Amino acid sequence: MTSSVDSKHTELNGELSSCPYKKYKMDNNRVTVVLGAQWGDEGKGKVVDLLALNSDVVCRCQGGNNAGHTVVVNGKEFDFHLLPSGIINQKCTSVIGNGVVIHLPGLFEELKKNELKGMEGWKDRLIISDRAHLVFDVHQQVDGLQEAEKGKNSLGTTKKGIGPTYSSKASRNGIRIGDLLGDFSIFEEKFRTLTDNYKRMFPSLEVDVDSELVRYRKYAEQIRPLVRDTVSYLHKEIRNGKKVLVEGANAAMLDIDFGTYPYVTSSNCSIGGVCTGLGLPPSVIGDVLGVVKAYTTRVGDGPFPTELHDETGQLLQSRGHEVGVTTRRVRRCGWLDLVVVRYTALVNGYTSLCLTKLDILDTLKEIKIGVAYKSNGKKIDYFPSSMAELSKVEVEYVTVPGWACSIEDVRKMDKLPEQARNYVKVIEDYLQIPVKYIGVGQGRESIINAD
């Protein structure tokens, strides 16, 4: 005899059999994530552009137009700041998720510039979350004022208003895309309140509120056809077997929690930002690809243990064209720091790596790789959270021979010089993570599949 409890269990099991999350667990490699493993500028855009060729949906999950991704397709260079790099692929839908903060004037300018370069059909392939927060010009003004107030202790932000916008979000007086598309009188009230708050904080701040409201009424109609609930959209696509690719902006060492705080951005650029910035459960994430530059760079202030202040550093900067896509600031350059990459691997759980810009090392006779830190003369097995400690660590290096020849035209792993293959092996052995792709040039065709 079946009890009423057993009956309920049978009924519940029947419901679970049709539950979409059961399918997620059975077939959980639908979402691939690409994350920067250092301080940014690793070349994620090129990697995403390549992987997007075999993806159905490509997403941005956090950050704003403080990010800069360069993609070269058929000799044309496209620069993306808010748009997912995969938008070049006309068979792929691009999603800007709820975790992204959006400066609409910047977005429309970016769309126009790339459209003039040949980016076609984006209106039918771009979806923007109604939950994404808006970056206003007043946020950008405040960003600059806050940096000026810090004086010599400034953080070197991009002054794109990212920090103030995330602060508004956390303070719960932020304004979302959905607010703009709803009752405009409510949007107006929220905008006036936001600007009044900033004016009290910064009396010198000047904002033409009425002019901004006129401008945003127009933006509302321009953006409306692109906006929808991206959470339900992505879950539906995953249930239907579509392949989703997620592009992290910035990089792990700029993560608000795990990066070199306070010299970081204002969002989670690590794996957690994928879940909160798109509304996806961890169970749907399959491969996590960490993008590692063959040396290390960073823009702005903050400790940089392997930084080079000599001719080698200048060579890396010159050969690598190390100038920020967003800020046009010259990037600081140094040896590859595997202590950094090991730490970000702990946080992000990389299943494989893409090593970019290996060709920039072509002319070096010897190459150093940072493999350990010493603090107060003792080797440490953690990454310091204190910037005072990090700025004083001694780096232990291993030195490997260079290959002293051009590898730009190499397309197969076995055609790389032995010394270059050894450099890759040192990285794999130290991190215990396979290097799946190797970048040896600018275009998507300049990537070696190392599998």
Automatic annotation (TrEMBL):
Q: What's in the keyword line of the UniProt record?
A: Cytoplasm, GTP-binding, Ligase, Magnesium, Metal-binding, Nucleotide-binding, Purine biosynthesis
Q: What is its EC number?
A: 6.3.4.4
Cellular localization per UniProt: Cytoplasm
Which residues are involved in binding GTP? 40-46, 68-70, 331, 357-359, 439-441
Q: How is the cofactor bound?
A: Binds 1 Mg(2+) ion per subunit.
Provide a GO biological process annotation. Answer: IMP metabolic process
Catalytic activity reads:
IMP + L-aspartate + GTP = N(6)-(1,2-dicarboxyethyl)-AMP + GDP + phosphate + 2 H(+)
Q: Where does substrate bind?
A: V325, T326, T327, R328, R329, V330, R331
Binding-site residues, Mg(2+): D41, G68
Job of this protein: Plays an important role in the de novo pathway of purine nucleotide biosynthesis.
PANTHER family, per database record: ADENYLOSUCCINATE SYNTHETASE
Protein family membership: Belongs to the adenylosuccinate synthetase family.
| Protein name as annotated | Adenylosuccinate synthetase
